[in-house]
Amino acid sequence: MSAIQNLQVYDPFADTGEDDAGPQGYIHIRIQQRNGRKTLTTVQGLPSEYDQKKLLKAFKKEFACNGTLVQDEELGQVIQLQGDQRIKVQNFLAEEGIEKKLIKIHGF
Amino acid sequence: MSDVENDQQTLEEEKTEDLLFDPTLKKKKKKPKVVFEDQLDTKEEKVAENANNSVEVNENEEKAEEDDMSIFADMKKKKKKKKEVTDKEKVEEEVPAESTELEQPKLKKKKKKIDFADFEKQLKEVDEDEARGAEDDNIFVPEGEQVEKESKVEEAWLKSDRDYTYQELLGRVFRILRQNNPELAGDKKRYTIVPPSVHREGNKKTIFANVSDICKRMHRQPEHVIQFLFAELGTSGSIDGSQRLVIRGRFVQKQIENVLRRYIVEYVTCKTCKSPDTILTKENRIFFQQCESCGSTRSVSAIKTGFKAQTEKRAAQRRAAVQ
Fold first, then answer.
1. Which residues pair with B208 in a beta bridge?
2. Separation in Å, CA of A13 to nearest CA in chain B
3. Which residue ranges form the domains of chain A, and what is each CATH number?
4. Which residues belong to any copy of the SUI1 domain (chain A) (predicted)?
5. Is the distance from CB of B256 to CB of B122 less than 8 angstroms?
6. Beta pairing partners, A29
7. Cα(B225)–Cα(B268) distance, rounded to whole angstroms?
8. Closest Cα partner for A29 from A96, A95, A74, A92?
9. Please, which of A16, A28, A92, A97 could form a disulfide with A44 given CB 3.0 to 4.6 Å?
10. How far apart are CA A63 and CA B68, in angstroms?
11. What's the rounded Cα separation, in Å, for the pair B307 and A45?
12. Neighboring chain A residues of B258 at a CB cutoff of 8 Å
């Protein structure tokens, strides 16, 4: 304990890491209406330490729906699932140890 | 309760003591009237004696109109009936085990019901997490209905022979106080806006008729609200000649309400004092929300549309691009 703790330098104007794409960013779960009563769920902003392909596979198996991985220029990989799987996805991710605060559900 | 109100209450206690009898008489007269109105409104109301009565009245009316839109209408019905059951249940698999004694043949249906109900409940939870008690469920109360509802809640102990609770009496004191001299009771009026009037146009469009009215009440630019609506609903639309919003896709009032509620939590209520009396200004491409009652300023997050999946047929898109 030789160094004085209080005098540590840090930049108050530095980025707080609250970027959407960063590891701190939110995971957005959205819903889109298709024709009729069909819907589509998209999961955007999953942390990069997870293998999206494997995650998709787990989703598909768990929710018994089909899905695909879409490559978006700005948002990176986005998981698309058939049907309204928002709550299920949220629960799944929460059980896997992702903070619930970081998961944002959109839509009606 | 805040200190100011406390003071007012103590101040007014002597005054209200002799007033106490009059209001009760008034109230007794009023109560049958309330019941009567309810009966007029819908038969289903009795089934669902929820707190957000008034909102549901409108929904029920709408339900009648849109029978073919059974997904969403059903969701509501199911939710009402199964609410108590679902409260404790988290996992779907548990459902049949618990309910088999009652409705065995309906098992399959029931599972679905639970699913929806659970879903809605959790959605609400999420909302409330964000809101952190900023606003209750029933923001959307038509004017004039609020007082009646309160009195209904108030007099719950009159019929049964149980003792009244502190909360009830406290509420009663305040209501009487407010009735008799509104200027003294403090401006504790709950923030309400009119329910959105939503109806369908054709098969694929929804009309949200009173956007401009609601925006005016929230003191927000309609563009901002509409942008948020579209971003959240993942759709698009336009404003027609008579200032109504035409949304692509099928939506019902409840869904629009949910989104508006989220908007209010995010962009209208002050995070510091929870007052809805705020203004939104734009500086250097960032929106700032300034509270009129406590003076705090904070930046609000920009509306982001996020990823939009392709939902229409590719061939149709190509055709549209060519033209």
1. B198, B245
2. 16
3. 25-105 (3.30.780.10)
4. 27-97
5. no
6. A43, A105
7. 11
8. A92
9. A28
10. 27
11. 10
12. 108
C-alpha to C-alpha distance for B183 and B8, rounded to whole angstroms: 11
- What phi-psi label fits residue B284: left (phi over 0), alpha (psi between -120 and 50 degrees) or beta? left
Beta-carbon-side half-sphere exposure of residue B113 (alpha carbons within 13 Å): 22
- The CA radius of gyration of chain A, in Å to the nearest whole number, is 18
Residue to substitute from B112, B307, B313, B317, interface A, most A β-carbons within 10 A: B307
**Entry field: residues in chain B:** 323
pLDDT computed for residue B116 by the predictor: 53
Q: Name B102's Cβ contacts closer than 8 Å, sequence gap at least 6.
A: none
- B194 closest CA partner among B122, B256, B109: B256
Per-residue tokens: A7: 């005098």
3-state secondary structure of B37: helix
Spatial distance between the Cα atoms of B188 and B2, rounded to a whole number of angstroms: 11
- pLDDT tens-digit readout, A53-63: 999 999 999 99
Residues 6+ apart with CB under 8 A from B311: A32, A33, A34, A35, A40
B205 chain-A contacts, CB cut-off 8 A:
none
Q: CA B315 to CA B225: how far, in whole Å?
A: 32
Distance CA A100, CA B126 (A): 9
pLDDT at B40: 40
Low-confidence ranges of chain A (pLDDT < 50): 17-23
Instruction: Output the pLDDT for position B294.
Output: 85
Is B304 in Cβ contact with A90 (below 8 Å)?
no
One-letter amino acid at B86 equals T
Task: Please state the pTM of the whole predicted model.
Answer: 0.56
Which among B262, B252, B204 is positioned nearest to B232, based on CA atoms? B262
Distance between CA atoms of residues B250 and B274, nearest Å: 33
Give the residue ranges of chain B where pLDDT is below 50: 1-4, 9-114, 126-137, 146-149
Residue closest to B119 by CA, chosen among A97, A98, A84, A35 = A84
> Residue B282: which H helix or E strand, with range?
strand B278-283
Alpha-carbon distance of B181 to B174, in angstroms, equals 10
Asked if B309 lies within 8 A of A20 by C-beta distance, the reply is no
